[in-house]
Specification:
The complex is a heterodimer.
Chain A (H helix, E strand, L loop, with lengths): L6 H13 L5 E7 L5 H12 L4 E6 L10 H10 L1 H8 L3 H12 L5 E6 L6 H12 L6 E8 L7 H8 L5 E5 L5 H8 L6 H8 L3 H8 L9 H9 L4 H13 L5 H8 L3 H9 L3 E4 L2 E4 L2 H10 L2 H15 L5 H11 L4 H16 L2 H13 L6 H17 L3 H14 L6 H17 L3 H15 L6 H16 L3 H18 L2 H18 L2 H17 L3 H17 L3 H17 L3 H17 L3 H12 L6 H18 L4 H12 L5 H17 L3 H11 L8 H14 L13 H6 L2 H10 L3 H8 L5 H14 L2 H13 L11 H5 L6 H11 L4 H8 L3 H15 L7 H7 L14
Parallel strand pairs in A: 1-4, 1-5, 2-3, 3-4
Antiparallel strand pairs in A: 6-7
Helix pairs in contact in A: 1-2, 3-4, 4-5, 6-7, 8-9, 10-11, 11-15, 12-13, 12-14, 12-15, 12-16, 13-16, 16-17, 17-18, 18-19, 19-20, 20-21, 21-22, 22-23, 22-24, 23-24, 24-25, 24-26, 25-26, 26-27, 26-28, 27-28, 28-29, 28-30, 29-30, 30-31, 30-32, 31-32, 32-33, 32-34, 33-34, 34-35, 34-36, 35-36, 38-39, ...
Chain B lengths: L2 E7 L10 H16 L3 E7 L5 E7 L3 H10 L6 E5 L6 H5 L1
Antiparallel strand pairs in B: 1-3, 1-4, 2-3
Helix pairs in contact in B: 1-2
Classes of the chains: A mainly alpha, B alpha+beta.
Chain lengths: ~850, ~90
């Protein structure tokens, strides 16, 4: 019998294959365990592939996943450059070689099974391919269970697999009707069977394969099926359960201590399947059931035999898995460490961190050199995957081992790095003390790369706390040392810090020039971490001075570089910065997506988690969504302990904004007061926001603190000038929010309409109240229907203005045409430019067309 | 998981045909919700079909907005709510 109720997903797969040509396709097949994902893919490959080449790779349920396991399976089938690249352990070359396999003249079908168990490098590979689908000619089908938890790494990847070339197929449980057809004339009651199994195809077929009472669970159903087996067949089955993947009959017999007929018996009973002379379980649910039914002693014994049978040439991660399963105290540290090293070279950093940890748990009798190496490796891998506390634990232990006076320089450099770890974990006192101690140890030893690096780190941390003058001084010293010893990487880092810090002191143009030169040098020296960091800092310097538009491509670049090189901390940091820029530009859904992406990661450093929660909280407050204050208080709790006014003041101002929007002026004033002691330690951007709230709270600005634009406009309460300043920079919410403080009815109407179009309901309601208080009539209560359907978020009136504007009318002529004041038309024009992200009237028609807004006949294209 | 009430306005009226087409439309929404981990519990629809109040289980307001975007549904207001029924005191007495 063919597959029941799978015609639609099968047709979808066939359809996707048909569309492979100019570009590739990715299909994600999801469903609960036993939903028939593999059966669907098998049927597709069997019946619809007319000779296309198929490459299979699967992930296994191991203690730590095999790095690039599925790609290794595929390389066994392809050989050639892919196998060579994997053999040499070069992840980048392996990815490129895989892409080349997918880009040949004939379409290839790639099947990746069980992504819920994938290692990090495999998930990187899936993302890598998904981003390049337009360049390949292949169909990639990936299956995964959909019952993974919220912290699962796949969840993080899953959200980023989007776009027109990605299709998601969900396999629903079988209907009662289908169960009825499967039961046929059999003895089972279809209704009871459907209810008990929830329509799970695997469970249903397990039950139907045997007579007798209806079992309670899948496990009971599987075990009932094993009951009639001979003792020797059970040995083979237990061995297969421990071995997990497809194995040769020789290995199975060796581990199970049985003969070939035992395997045949399992195959005949439908528990194992034979695929080209290798055997594995028909389904992993059956494997799990058999594995769980064994006694712990039996399981350890089989793992031990598997370890022995695999020999010295077996896959390292597989061997480490069996060593751990066998509880083999001698083999675990050696194999786990070797497997971890392999994971590092292939880019599976989470798995590496875990395996190093496992090796270190069995450190008794480990040679001191190896212990140090493992501690150092564990600390760096944990730092890389944003697990700072675990990184610190290993780093601290390592520093206690560096006691030989001959190693003073090594210890000092290690402490410099550890100081930064403390700071990033929010442990300030220990961080500063450790950094300074490192410097005290290094300075008497004269110029060295380590000294340049440690000075650079110290400068960087001064920059982060807003002590820009010290940061510039120390960065200069770092730069001098680095140039003298010819340390290019350290020189680049120091130059970047100096540029950012100059920006903080107000010398923005000088700072940007230095950062641009540091960026060039970092690119030339192929230092992706520095490229991403410097680009992030440049973007920051740009938007701090109000230039949100220029900041966007720079931060996009920083995120892209971090993603391409899997620099997780840099990526989180870049996404948080980009959320700020996108929020400023009024692109709230995208800002929300970036902040959500950061929080969806399994591990996030507190500084990034705090920033992401801040962005979410502020957007919630502006949209009138619930839990805004909760998110902001969480952000404050994460950021305030870091002791940097630059980080905590913006959160307090957002708390002030959230309070004000809900009518709590006292709370607003209290938050503003709490910011004032830090007024000297703020960059111009944060200072300008504070100035706005100081005026709204009715408190006074310390006279000695200079305020560059737009802070001066905000403090003076010049609503229209402030709105115009923000409009020129393409920041629609700041502009409309400022305009809402005007006393002019036309201004307020324009502000109201713009706020509604942005989805800023609470602020729009405040402005509407002011309008009514001024005696204005007919204040609209909600956005007009067409606004919601407009792809660029233009209101009906703005669309009219845009039409006339592209027809070449001046503002005065538009005012005549629409019977409005010229001033109101000015506001509408600014708003149109801001929403379309352009700075001149000339570009309106093009930008509108790009966003799907048809200005020719006035029809607004609704998304369908 | 928190429960939310989501108010939506459909200026031209909401139309869900009671046939296979309607079933497919609802299936599509449920599927898209799944990807945002959002569960649509049920909705109340105003007599003129222009306003709905939809009860949702969702991990966050953001997930509701993402699901709404995927389903091309408007969002006017999202509130966190709890259940209160007239017999709540019976459980404690």
């Amino acid at each position: 019998m063919g597959l029941l109720e799978r015609a639609a997903p099968l047709a979808e797969l066939v359809g996707c294959l048909g569309q492979v040509g100019g570009a590739g396709r990715l299909v994600l097949v999801s469903g609960e365990a036993g939903a028939g994902k593999t059966a669907l893919v098998d049927a597709f490959c069997r019946e619809h592939l007319d000779g296309s080449r198929v490459l299979f790779g699967r992930c296994d349920d191991l203690f730590a996943a095999r790095p690039l396991g599925p790609l290794l399976d595929i390389a066994r089938q392809t050989g050639g450059p892919l196998a060579d690249a994997l053999g040499s352990g070069d992840q980048g070359a392996a990815f490129e070689a895989f892409l080349a396999e997918l880009s040949g003249p004939d379409p290839v079908v790639v099947v990746l099974e069980d992504l819920q168990w994938a290692d990090e490098a495999t998930l990187d590979l899936v993302r890598f391919v998904a981003r390049r689908l337009d360049t390949v000619r292949s169909l990639v089908v990936a299956t995964h269970r959909d019952d993974f938890g919220v912290d699962h790494p796949l969840r993080h990847t899953y959200g980023s697999l989007v776009g027109p070339l990605v299709t998601r197929l969900h396999l629903a449980p079988l209907s009662l009707d289908a169960v009825r057809r499967l039961v046929g004339d059999g003895p089972h009651d279809p209704v009871a069977l459907h209810a008990r199994t929830g329509g799970n195809p695997f469970f249903v077929t397990e039950v139907l394969s045997q007579s007798g009472a209806l079992p309670d669970t899948v496990r009971a159903a599987v075990l009932a099926r094993t009951a009639p087996l001979s003792g020797s067949a059970r040995d083979a089955l237990d061995a297969a359960a421990v071995l997990g993947r497809q194995v040769t009959p020789e290995l199975l017999c060796q581990v199970g201590d049985c003969e070939a007929p035992a395997i045949d018996e399992c195959v005949a009973a439908g528990l194992l399947v034979d695929d080209g002379g290798r055997q594995t379980f028909r389904h992993d649910l059956a494997r799990e059931a058999v594995e769980q039914a064994m006694t712990p002693l039996r399981r350890r014994q089989l793992h031990s035999r598997a370890l022995e049978a695999l020999g010295d040439d077996g896959d390292l991660v597989q061997r480490a898995h069996h060593a751990i399963g066998a509880g083999d105290r001698a083999a675990i540290p050696v194999l786990a460490a070797m497997a971890a090293d392999r994971c590092v070279t292939l880019g599976a950093h989470s798995q590496a961190a875990t395996l190093y940890g496992c090796a270190l748990e069995h450190r008794d009798g480990m040679p001191p050199e190896e212990l140090r190496r493992l501690l150092d490796a564990r600390a760096h891998e944990c730092e890389r995957v944003e697990r700072p506390e675990e990184a610190l634990a290993a780093a601290q232990e390592l520093s206690t081992l560096l006691t030989d006076p001959k190693e003073a320089a090594t210890l000092a450099e290690h402490e410099g790095w550890m100081g930064c770890l403390y700071l990033s974990a929010g442990r300030l006192d220990e961080g500063w003390a450790t950094l300074r101690r490192a410097l005290r140890r290094l300075e008497p030893l004269g110029d060295s790369v380590a000294l340049a690096r440690t000075l650079g780190r110290l400068a960087g941390n001064h920059m982060v706390i807003g002590d820009w003058a010290s940061a510039v001084d120390i960065a200069d010293r770092a730069l001098d040392v680095a140039e003298r010893v010819g340390a290019e990487a350290e020189a680049i880092y120091a130059l970047g810090i100096k540029g950012s810090s100059l920006g903080g002191t107000g010398a923005i143009d000088d700072g940007l020039a230095l950062m641009a030169s540091a960026l060039e040098r970092a690119k030339a020296a192929e230092l992706p971490g520095d490229v991403s960091l410097i680009a992030s800092n440049m973007s920051n310097a740009l938007y701090v001075s109000g230039d949100y538009r220029s900041a966007l491509p720079v931060i996009d670049d920083a995120v892209a570089v971090a993603e391409a090189h899997e620099l997780r901390v840099r990526r989180s940091c870049g996404l948080c910065e980009r959320a700020e820029v996108l929020t400023g530009l009024g692109r709230w859904d995208e800002a929300m997506a970036d902040a959500t992406t950061v929080l969806a990661q399994p591990d996030v450093a507190p500084i990034n988690e705090g920033a992401a929660r801040h962005h979410l909280g502020r957007l919630r407050a502006r949209r009138g969504d619930p839990a805004a204050r909760d998110a902001l208080l969480q952000a404050l709790a994460l950021l305030e302990p870091i002791g940097q006014a630059q980080l905590s003041v913006p959160v307090r101002l957002s708390l002030a904004e959230a309070a004000w929007l809900t009518g709590d002026d006292d709370e607003m004033a209290a938050q503003v007061d709490a910011c004032l002691p830090d007024v000297h330690r703020l960059d111009p951007g944060v200072a300008a926001s504070l100035a706005l709230w100081v005026r709204r709270a009715g408190t006074s600005w310390p006279a000695e603190v200079h305020l560059p634009p737009p802070g001066d406009l905000a403090l003076a309460g010049d609503a229209t000038a402030l709105a115009a300043w923000w409009d020129e920079r393409g920041c629609p919410y700041s502009a409309a929010d400022a305009l809402g403080d005007s006393d002019d009815e036309d201004d307020l109407r324009a502000a109201h309409e713009r706020l509604l179009a942005l989805g800023a309901r609470p602020r729009a309601q405040m402005v509407a109240r002011r309008l009514r208080d001024l005696g204005a009539r007919e204040v609209p209560r909600g956005p007009r229907p067409s606004t919601r359907a407009n792809a660029a978020g233009l209101t009906a009136r703005e669309t009219e203005v845009a039409q006339l504007l592209t027809a070449g009318l001046t503002n005065a002529a538009i005012a005549d045409e629409l019977v409005l004041s010229t001033k109101t038309v000015d506001h509408h024009v600014s708003s149109v430019l801001a929403k379309l992200g352009v700075s001149t009237r000339r570009d309106v028609a093009r930008a509108a067309a790009e966003r799907g807004v048809d200005l020719q006949d006035g029809v607004v294209a609704a998304p369908t | 998981m928190p429960r939310y009430l989501v108010q939506r306005t459909f200026p031209d009226g909401l139309r869900f045909p009671i046939d296979d087409l309607g079933r497919q439309a609802v299936d599509g929404i449920v599927r898209a919700n799944l990807e945002s981990e959002v569960t649509w519990v049920h909705s109340y629809v105003s007599d003129d079909d222009t306003t709905t109040w939809c009860v949702y289980d969702s991990p966050s307001p953001e997930a509701i907005r993402v699901a709404a975007g995927r389903n091309q549904l408007p969002v006017d207001q999202i509130s966190v709510v709890r259940v209160l029924d007239p017999y709540f005191y019976k459980a404690t007495s």
